[in-house]
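pasting for ref
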Amino acid sequence: MNLNFHESWKPYLEAELSQDYFKQLIDFVSSEYEKGNCYPPKEAIFNAFNYCHFNDVKVVIIGQDPYHGEGQANGLCFSVADGIKHPPSLINIFKEIESDLGIPYPESGNLERWAKQGVLLLNATLTVRALEAGSHQKKGWETFTDAVIKTISDNKKDVVFLLWGGFAKKKAKLIDAKKHIILNSGHPSPLSANRGYWFGNTHFSQVNQRLAHLGLKGLKW
């Protein structure tokens, strides 16, 4: 399998890529893709790193698992390919942006536009078997993506980490809170959002306020 991610990440992740667990992970993923349908498409597995280069990372959003329905996953957490129906969590993300910033609900659920502005949209597990949620968990992806989070924490400063839901909040232990900003919230899934744990978190305006404080341009959410 071709590890096609942007050159800017390679100096920081080289040691991780040469570890035995990572080689075994890639062997597993390659065999899974050969056996049948897996998502996202093979060439999109590392899209989070291709659309958001290391030096550009301003914000990190952590998801858990890629969408497992046909045509949905595009290698960015919470994002779907153009023309695909928006999943419930993404609908709630866009609703919160609408109420927080007054930005109209968008037609496309493709979040490449965020990634290109410096938002790393990182799933903890980067691949999944079709229609089998969590099927590639605990195979090594979490070790790799934890290393990515820690690498960003260690080598950058003033990054805003958005931790949505219990799973993402556990990643706080990898982040140096003295150097970075951590914003916590419930998950945007209907189960959490309908209980009042998501709507009104104002994370999107808070990110832009933080970037402005640093003299940086706000994001076009």
